[in-house]
Amino acid sequence: MHLHKYERIWLIFGISSLVLFLVVLGVGAFYKGTQPPSHLATVDPTKVEEHEAFREENLGLRKVGENDYIVSVIASAFNYNFGKDDEGNTIRKIEIPVGSNVLFQATTTDVIHGFQLAGTNVNMMVEPGYINSLKTTFKKTGTYTLICNEYCGTGHHLMAFEVEVID
Ligand code: CUA
């Protein structure tokens, strides 16, 4: 069968574009360890504080191994609850040593909130009735800002928290 020169060029162009598109999509989806929220666990949104992970004493940063930490957070309009310190004051900032592996787990007592730790792969939705979690490893020191990226009401822009990664 004879193919006209231009027909061949356009065929090659078309197929190449499709392959390029699929490669960009495939690589882009997993670049930087981005992953869809998986292993969803459920929780009664009206009894969140009765769940092991979100009991008062388990909120915030917890060391669970040499280099491993768990951060448990209850989101609600319009704040992130990281628990209280030893003096009973609300925790406004956490400090994590550089190189740590951290599992973030969060839920919400009201509406859907966002949970994005800018500059890391931690970017998930927090939904009532579910425990959403993501792992990250902090390779660089600095201040990371946790923000809500799902519109949740009039105080949406106030939902933020600071994570300090220290030496
Ligand atoms: Cu919470 Cu927007």
Automatic annotation (TrEMBL):
PROSITE patterns: COX2, COX2_CUA. It catalyses: 4 Fe(II)-[cytochrome c] + O2 + 8 H(+)(in) = 4 Fe(III)-[cytochrome c] + 2 H2O + 4 H(+)(out). It comes from the Bacteria. GO terms for molecular function: copper ion binding; cytochrome-c oxidase activity. One of its GO terms (cellular component) is membrane. Keywords: Copper, Membrane, Metal-binding, Transmembrane, Transmembrane helix. Residues 66-167 form the Cytochrome oxidase subunit II copper A binding domain. This is Cytochrome aa3 subunit 2. The keyword Metal-binding applies. SUPFAM superfamilies: Cupredoxins. Pfam families: COX2. The chain crosses the membrane at residues 9-31. It comes from Saliterribacillus persicus. Subunits I and II form the functional core of the enzyme complex. Electrons originating in cytochrome c are transferred via heme a and Cu(A) to the binuclear center formed by heme a3 and Cu(B). It is found in: Cell envelope.
